[in-house]
Amino acid sequence: MKTRALAIAGLLLCAAARTGLCANEAGTGAAAFLNLPVDARGAAMGGAVAGSPRGGMALFQNPAGLGAGPGSVAFSHSLLAEDISYDVLAAAVPLCYGALGVGLQYLQYGSLASLDNTGLAAGTISPRDGAASLGYGIALMKDVYLGAAGKYINSKISGSASALALDAGLLIGGRELSVGLSAQNLGKPMKFRDEGAPLPVIYRAGLYAHYSPALQWSADVNFPKDGRAWIGVGAEYALAKGQVWSLLARAGYSTAAMDTKRVNGLSAGFGLAHKGIAVDYAFRTMGLLGSTHHFGLSCRLGK
Fold this sequence. Notes:
mainly beta
């Protein structure tokens, strides 16, 4: 139990270091899980996705990407530390004008021993965090997309707390080059009993370039409201690409938690796509916490 409790604390302080909590700053924020990677592709590419949001997962990365397409249904399962797991389900549904996005995020920590005010055992608790999102993206003009999403966030430890938040994004560019801007988790503090904890507000600027038919890369600069800025970079290379199936290799690096011990910030993975269905895998190095593993499955809707 003690090991798992330490893993939970380390995960939320370091995996979500983008809020500045790993920069030796006061850890008073809530819902840090909102800054964890939502899919295997983004995890493999150092979290650099603001300039190239794709399909249903664009709802969490930059909602403007919903309007750029394609429509898709996507699921991601991540194994973090101990038996802590993170599941994300999202869909982007093309409409006559733009696309509607819906999604769920759920982080569970397993069971932990609970103590009363005298230090005696008082059963167990099962902390968890979750969020439900609804968004919309639309093309304002050729190669200019705008999107927004609202989310309901709920966290439970021994008691529970909830909050509402807003994401907004802009995406400019086409298939060869694009720039993305987003603001995420805008909202009032989440209240646990009588104390309020701010949401992990973060502003992102991303660049995506299709360098060649086989190679594409992306880079993000991230500005957490209550922490230091960090950079994520990633690349994707088509080892084999055809009309029927494709095999993609990915790698990336993030400076989000440079001040933690051991190897941190490196990531890699692969994707295999066949007739609109894609399977993805990624791992990230997390310093003292070891490596995290991310699995994804998505299906394209329409052309």
